[in-house]
Amino acid sequence: MHLDLVVEGRLIDIVAEGFDAGVRLGEAVPQDAIAVPFGGPARFLAAASPAYLARHGRPRTPDDLARHDCIRFRLPGGRLYRWEFERHGQEMAVDVPGRLALNTPAAMIEAACAGLGIAFVSDSVAQPHLGAGRLDIVLGDWCPPFDGAVLYYPGHRHVPAGLRAFIDVLKETDPARKSSAAG
């Protein structure tokens, strides 16, 4: 078996590019693909340093972000990401203001820790900084968890033996599957 791992920031057609499988958020998987969830739910959240919040105040709703410095995320295709929020069934995408746009979550976290504004990043990236007190969550009640990552592969093609074995191991070792099977 050979492993060819390519990390891309853009969505690609795995069949056209010659790959057996890919990894995406579940909501972005093509309809004709088979998805195998792993890792459990994910969450994006807005976070800022305590010093930034002391100087500028804490936003209470996504609309309040219009009066804040937001650290924007530049997508691989060049577009700026619109922050997505949800609470009590109300969904909203906000084109936040900001003088700083970065293209990596790590750079966004560092800028937020330095007090340059509010960043919108995955909780897994922010967690070490939240735990250490360098960042605080803002608008937490607007940032619910959602279905996380999936391994996906074309539903209309033969699944190579190596991929089948990997899927079996993934299912066997995924803690989210183990906890749901135990309940």
Automatic annotation (TrEMBL):
What PANTHER family does the database record attribute to this sequence?
A: HTH-TYPE TRANSCRIPTIONAL REGULATOR (PTHR30537), HTH-TYPE TRANSCRIPTIONAL REGULATOR PGRR (PTHR30537:SF1)
Which parts of the chain span the membrane according to its record?
A: none
Give the matching Pfam families.
LysR_substrate
Where does the LysR substrate-binding domain lie?
2-173
The family this protein is said to belong to? Belongs to the LysR transcriptional regulatory family.
- What is the official name of this protein in its record? LysR substrate-binding domain-containing protein
Top-rank taxon of the source lineage equals Bacteria
